Amino acid sequence: METKKSKTVWKVLGLFLILMLITGVIYPLVVTAISQAAFKEKANGSIIEVDGKKYGSVLLAQQFTGDEYLWGRVMNLDTSTYTDENGDTVMYAGPTNLTPASEDYEKLIAKRVEKLRKANPEKADEEIPVDLVTVSGSGLDPHISPEAAKYQVERIADTRGMEPEEVQKIIDKYTEGRFFGVLGEKTVNVLEVNLELEGILK
């Protein structure tokens, strides 16, 4: 009886070790190898790198506040006390937990609208695209709508001494279409636009 139990235990342990080897070592190595060979850029985070310098991922938002830049979605930043290996402060962002029905949320939106009106006086009579005053579900959405980008064209052009058409051309360059041409909406990648405005991307 004990011998049968021992054999069963060893069989179970052997099966456990085999499955652990397959799922914990072989499978991850195979998937990693395939992703690095076929989708290296995406597998490594879709990082924008120019002349050996990394500027960020096209998949994660960065906060731009200068009048010379295209502004993205509102970000709830938490700098806290986190630092990276270089000693620079690391910023974390997340969604808001305020309900749209609350007075606090209404005041927050009004404050954001006021800021945008002040920064874009030439658009005083135009409706502000909703994505410029609301936080995305992830808090890290790198895109805005073409309408939100167009709303900022004149401010960027005036600040940089460019023609509005030049700014719009750059925005159009980094406007992504609907998935399969039918799903979702068109979006503009804020980081890519700003890097081209700075002459980093061409």
Automatic annotation (TrEMBL):
Record keyword ATP-binding present: yes
Origin organism lineage: Bacteria, Bacillati, Bacillota, Clostridia, Lachnospirales
Membrane-spanning ranges: 12-30
Full protein name: Potassium-transporting ATPase KdpC subunit
Presence of the UniProt keyword Cell membrane in the record: yes
Similarity-based family: Belongs to the KdpC family.
Membrane protein topology class: Single-pass membrane protein
Quaternary assembly: The system is composed of three essential subunits: KdpA, KdpB and KdpC.
Keywords of the record: ATP-binding, Cell membrane, Ion transport, Membrane, Nucleotide-binding, Potassium, Potassium transport, Transmembrane, Transmembrane helix, Transport
Cited Pfam families: KdpC
Subcellular localization: Cell membrane
Role: Part of the high-affinity ATP-driven potassium transport (or Kdp) system, which catalyzes the hydrolysis of ATP coupled with the electrogenic transport of potassium into the cytoplasm. This subunit acts as a catalytic chaperone that increases the ATP-binding affinity of the ATP-hydrolyzing subunit KdpB by the formation of a transient KdpB/KdpC/ATP ternary complex.
Record-linked InterPro entries: KdpC (IPR003820)
